[in-house]
Design a protein that fits this description.
about 190 residues, alpha/beta, Uracil-DNA Glycosylase, subunit E, six-stranded mixed beta sheet, 8 helices
Length: about 190
Amino acid sequence: MNELAEEVRNCRRCGLCGDRQNPVLGEGSLSATVMFIGEAPGRKEDETGRPFVGAAGRILDRILEHISLGRGDVYIGNVVKCRPPNNRRPRSTEIEACAPHLETQLEIIEPSIIAPMGNSAISHLMKRFGLKTATIGKVHGKPFDVEAPWGRVVLFPVYHPAAAIYRRNLERVLEEDFESLKRILNRVYGSRT
């Protein structure tokens, strides 16, 4: 992961590196059963070099705590590693340019459950695993069994925590989806997180 971090620091595959303060690789357990993948760093993440440290991160932390997990139990990253200007969604060309970094992360961690958060991450990962893409409203909280280079994986899409900032009712939906995620963990994987 240290080699990948250095590669990301030196990456110039797309224009996002030009305005960034810090790339944001991700953080958490390198042996995590669950890997959460958002779309891109925001302003606070760009300042600190850490994922999900702003308002959306506080919501994510609260919902993880709701199912008795912490950041050290999971791995948290993004599809792209540099902040898009004005927090816009990453473009498909930027996602494709950064995809090899995400693939390397996935192969290092070998998660049993991949939880993409938000439409950009969901679209990329559903396509990556050969699934028909759909919007978050149609697939959130639904497990998809897929094949990864390291074995069978559950792709478990959820709303991006930032959505709950603008639509407060989505925080309860997120909690319900995370409760479903916890049931999958308990049933299939025991207590390993």
